[in-house]
Amino acid sequence: xxxxxxxxxxxxxxxxxxxxxxxxxxxxxxxxxxxxxxxxxxxxxxxxxxxxxxxxxxxxxxxxxxxxxxxxxxxxxxxxxxxxxxxxxxxxxxxxxxxxxxxxxxxxxxxxxxxxxxxxxxxxxxxxxxxxxx
Length: 134
Prior knowledge:
The protein is mainly α.
């Protein structure tokens, strides 16, 4: 299985689960919605930054294109996972919510994954390498 598929799959599932979780919290506790949304967004950004930094630090070959393709997988997968999770856990969200999730939502998720991983790769390239590596 390609490294891009692994990264895209897990980042997509993470984003979808976080989307459903944020919606669930907002429905059950509206006053906590904005704080939870900010914390959840920070969580998914930090994970992509750390993973991108690890790839750069380990000098993973082709990491830029790997994260590009991973973001293309993560976007639509997060949209589908978010709609399914919201439908199962929160309310009666149906297929009518799928189209917006697969267009604007998927594009936003792909951009967040790619930009966060790029920042992480920049940080990983700047980090000191272990002795004996090139």
